[in-house]
Specification:
By secondary structure, this protein is an alpha/beta fold. The chain has a single domain (16-307), classed as Rossmann fold, CATH 3.40.50.720. Helices cover 41% and strands 12% of the residues. Helix 1 (29-40) crosses helix 7 (240-252). The longest helix is centred in the middle third of the chain and has 23 residues, at 121-143. Bound molecules: NADP nicotinamide-adenine-dinucleotide phosphate (NAP). NADP nicotinamide-adenine-dinucleotide phosphate (NAP) is lined by residues 25, 27-31, 49-51, 54, 76-79, 104-107, 125, 152, 154, 209, 211-212, 214, 216, 233, 237.
Length: 308
């Protein structure tokens, strides 16, 4: 075992037979290992990502390597909120329950431009997609309670800075800057959501996976930086099945049952910047996010009496 893999307190023998787990961004990297871990525990595993061909291959690999035939793939592209809504409609049509949601989709090195939804592409892929997906799936998770949501952030969040009215502005932030902002937003919405869903039986956590041996920088245009940064991940990153253990721990372990709303690293509570305690900021980010992803009154479980 390498020193970098030396967090041993995450191991858990919890089985997931009869449970349903959704892992976003499971076609590569850590997401694949998270899905595999859940499948090995007997869960019905739904893998979601944007590329159908990759999804089909990933599903076949998961079934073959775990012997669990209960793996389903569903396409969803975070570049389009319409795609997220279509995915959610499929979930409500075909899945009577959802016990675990791991929000793992993330990308760096994408273009600095607006999407068809008028949001900054990096913010949408790293934050608004997750926000919308989680908001819309919450009623299903409440029906399946106790259930858990894990939001994958990054240590980059400490460089993040949320300017509510400027967060989607093209040309305002560096690529790493906007990635950091989005990863901070993932943590702030975790804190705020936890306050708003008290008593629902749904827990929500955020976590920093540390460095992992993925090809996370593959979207960079610049060949030198792409190769240098991916090589650095290979050298300094942890093995991905170990990184996956941290999200799995938060999704299943009884030891964190009372820690909803908290931020974790290496399976222990971790520093998440003072922004997380700024109740004005977390509240305004939540409300502004609802406006920007255009939560319809019928979708809004905070105000629609049908959800009570
Ligand atoms: N690796 C690290 O050192 C590190 C460090 C800190 C945080 N993280 C976070 O950990 C998470 C997993 O990253 P990873 O290292 O495993 O990277 P990865 O291998 O690049 O995995 C990212 C996943 O997200 C999917 N994805 C990207 N853009 C998408 C979109 N528009 N719509 C739908 N799916 C999309 C990718 O699909 P495709 O296969 O189609 O691209 C892939 O399945 C990310 O949230 C990342 O920010 C990673």
């Amino acid at each position: 075992m390498s020193l970098r893999d030396e967090f041993t307190n995450c191991e858990s023998d919890v089985r997931l037979d009869g449970k349903v787990a959704l892992v976003t961004g499971a076609t590569s990297g850590t997401g694949y290992e998270i899905a595999k871990n859940f499948a090995n525990r007997g869960a019905r595993v739904i893998i979601a990502s944007r590329n159908t061909e990759k999804l089909e291959k990933t599903k076949a690999n998961l079934i073959e390597s775990t012997g669990n035939p209960n793996v389903v793939h569903r396409q969803m592209d975070f570049e389009s909120l319409k795609s997220v809504r279509a995915f959610v409609t499929e979930m409500y049509t075909y899945e009577p329950r959802l016990d675990i949601l791991v929000n793992n989709i993330g990308a760096i090195g994408l273009e600095d431009r607006l999407t068809e939804d008028n949001l900054n592409l990096m913010m949408q892929v790293n934050y608004f997609g997750t926000f919308l997906l989680t908001f819309l799936l919450f009623p299903l998770m409440k029906l399946s309670a106790p259930s858990r949501i894990v939001n994958v952030s990054s240590l980059a969040l400490i460089l993040g800075h949320i300017e509510i009215d400027q967060m989607n502005e093209v040309g305002r932030y560096s690529n790493f800057g906007i990635y950091s902002n989005a990863k901070l937003a993932d943590v702030l919405f975790t804190v705020e959501m936890n306050k708003r869903i008290q008593g629902s039986g749904v827990s929500v956590f955020s976590m920093d996976p540390g460095l992992g041996k993925s090809e996370f920088f593959r979207h960079y245009d610049d060949g030198f930086w792409k190769s240098a940064l991916n090589t650095a991940l290979l050298i300094f990153g942890r093995r991905l099945h170990r990184v996956a253990t941290m999200s799995v721990f938060l999704a299943i372990d009884p030891r964190v049952a009372d820690s909803s709303g908290k931020h974790f690293r290496d399976c222990a509570e971790f520093y998440s910047t003072w922004f997380a305690n700024d109740t004005n900021l977390t509240c305004s980010l939540w409300e502004r996010s609802k406006q920007l992803v255009r939560i319809h009154p019928q979708e809004d479980w905070e105000t629609n009496f049908l959800y009570y």
